[in-house]
Specification:
Layout: E1 9-12, E2 15-18, E3 24-26, E4 33-34, E5 48-50, E6 55-56, E7 72-74, E8 96-98, E9 105-106, E10 120-122, E11 127-130, E12 144-146, E13 151-152, E14 168-170
Parallel strand pairs: 3-5, 4-6, 5-7, 7-8, 8-10, 9-11, 10-12, 11-13, 12-14
Antiparallel strand pairs: 1-2
């Protein structure tokens, strides 16, 4: 497709977005259904992607890892299933990652430890299992870590003590 500004575009949810010029995509509260299209990974200049409060289902496409300029990623409050793709670990500019209030399963990928610029990590109210990865201790800029309301097991890793900037640490309602 060709975007309104005449540049090459990507069609998402029946709209055409400029690959070159789209830096913010806020479709929160837009009534979106179906899956997140893998083509979203072509919007490589995106800095903020907000798809929260929709009815999105299916998995997070691994192509999300192509969005290396992302600073904010909010997919919260949908019905997204499957595992958090390890490709999320390539988004090293992320400051805010919010995947809460979905139906994500599997383990928290250890690659999350690559996101050393994160100040906020919200994974609460999913169906995540396994232990909290020790790599979470790499996220020394975290101010808010929300892992409540999952099915996480094991002990809290001692590396969590590296998070000296933590203001809110939510681990309740797990195993």
């Amino acid at each position: 497709c060709t975007a309104d500004d005449g540049t090459e575009g990507v069609e998402l949810w029946e709209e055409c977005y400029s690959i070159e010029n789209t830096t913010v995509l806020d479709l929160s509260w837009s009534g979106l259904t179906g899956q997140i299209p893998p083509d979203i990974g072509n919007l490589t200049n995106l800095e903020s992607l907000y798809l929260s409060w929709n009815e999105l289902s299916g998995q997070i496409p691994p192509e999300i890892g192509n969005l290396i300029n992302l600073i904010n990623l909010n997919l919260g409050n949908n019905q997204i299933t499957g595992e958090i793709p390890s490709e999320i670990g390539t988004l090293t500019n992320l400051i805010y990652l919010y995947l809460s209030w979905n139906e994500l399963s599997g383990q928290i990928p250890p690659e999350i430890g690559n996101l050393t610029n994160l100040t906020g990590l919200g994974l609460l109210s999913n169906q995540l299992t396994g232990e909290i990865p020790t790599e979470i201790g790499n996220l020394i800029n975290l101010v808010d870590l929300s892992l409540s309301y999952n099915q996480l097991t094991g002990e809290i890793p001692p590396e969590i003590g590296n998070l000296t900037n933590i203001d809110e640490l939510k681990l309740s309602y797990n195993q």
